[in-house]
Amino acid sequence: SLEWYIEGGRSRSGKLLPPRFGLLAYVVDAYRRAKSEDVWLIPVSIGYDQIQDVGSYVSEQRGGQKERESFSWFLRMFRMLKRRYGEIYIRFGEPVSLRETLGTATEQAPRDEYDIALQKLAFEVSVRINRVTPITATSLVTLALLGAGDRALSLDETVRAVQSLCDYVRRRKLPTTESPELDTPDGIARVLGGLLENGIVTSYAGGPETVYAIGQEQHLAAA
Questions:
Q1: Which of 74, 122, 155, 171 could form a disulfide with 19 if both were Cys (CB 3.0 to 4.6 A apart)?
Q2: What own/partner pairs with CB < 8 Å and gap ≥ 24 does 27-32 have?
Q3: Are 93 and 45 in contact (CB under 8 A)?
Q4: CB 51 within 8 A of CB 77
């Protein structure tokens, strides 16, 4: 068994990156030489409620240089692990059979058509990864707060905004984290607590009710 990241690295924007063909080409070449009767590619999605190095990602999106992974960087990252970052979600997509996709070694397309077939295969794996990537409660809360612009929202207003998004998600039958509290006050309050702890969201409790908003200079991190 082989395991690799078809994107070739971590996404700095949260979006699925275009696939890289190197390791996949090695696997396909071996199959074309009849080293195996079939090879199954298993698309895997790994998602997070929050990531600890989102700050460095934001800096890079603004044109900053990627921070070198020194010993002091390691110690700082280790300390940050004391914070809560929520859950990690692993989902498996529908497998892709090389035998069904490319045919047997004697049935395969000529070499000049090989590159196109390889690209189609890589993009099919990426599509299947995207298809099973779940929508998280954290992503819905940050989307609702970003959509409010400069206006802060109370807990009830946030719940109503998230419920509207959840209705859209359910109509489209999009995958979610299957949380039973995806759009309930208790569930949203817990999500807001995690975002508050990491500075993505700020709150103000000096009025009739507590209100929440994306923190100053944190809109890219929330996005």
A1: 122
A2: 27/2, 27/98, 28/98, 28/102, 28/118, 28/121, 31/98, 31/102, 31/105, 32/102, 32/105, 32/108, 32/114
A3: yes
A4: no
Tokens standing for residue 124: 């099919």
CA distance 217 to 74: 25
| DSSP structural state of residue 135 | B
Q: What is the mean pLDDT of residues 98-108?
A: 78
What are the pLDDT digits (tens) for 121-170?
A: 999 999 999 999 999 989 999 999 999 988 999 999 999 999 999 999 98
Between CA 203 and CA 197 the distance in angstroms is 11
Q: Comparing C-alpha atoms, which of 199, 29, 4 is closest to residue 111?
A: 29
Nearest to 195, CA basis, from 203, 183, 205: 203
pTM listed for this prediction: 0.80
Report the distance separating Cα 96 and Cα 131, nearest Å: 14
